[in-house]
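Tokens for chain A. Residues wanted.
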């Protein structure tokens, strides 16, 4: 397929992030920017997480409800679509959603939550 973009053109898109707060304190950056196809890591801090709490990530596109992406209790877990990983810190007080090759269609609000 022939590209309609000049060779020197870089496509930028913004991923927006938010946090769902129930009775927990969660915090992370409110926006991030990357070029299409360039990996990006989205960090979430959850210092009051209990050992039995699962870390969940959701993605919400404009005009749609949030959709579940991945969850983990500890360690790392592969994310099939979009390709990437959820990595939970050893002390489980933070996590990062790593998107390997984000596309323009991945621009959305990303939520971190505990359950």
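Reply:
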């Amino acid at each position: 397929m022939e590209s309609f973009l000049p060779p020197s053109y870089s496509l930028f898109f913004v991923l927006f992030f938010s946090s769902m707060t129930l009775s927990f304190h969660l915090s992370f950056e409110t926006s991030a920017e990357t070029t299409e196809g360039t990996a990006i890591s989205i960090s979430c801090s959850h210092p009051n997480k209990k050992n039995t709490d699962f870390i969940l990530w959701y993605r919400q596109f404009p005009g749609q409800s949030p959709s579940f992406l991945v969850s983990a209790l500890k360690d790392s877990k592969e994310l099939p679509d979009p390709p990437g990983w959820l990595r939970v810190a050893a002390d489980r007080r933070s996590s990062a959603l790593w998107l390997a090759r984000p596309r323009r269609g991945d621009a959305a609000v990303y939520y971190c939550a505990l359950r």
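The longest strand covers residues 12-19. The chain has one domain: 18-40+52-114.
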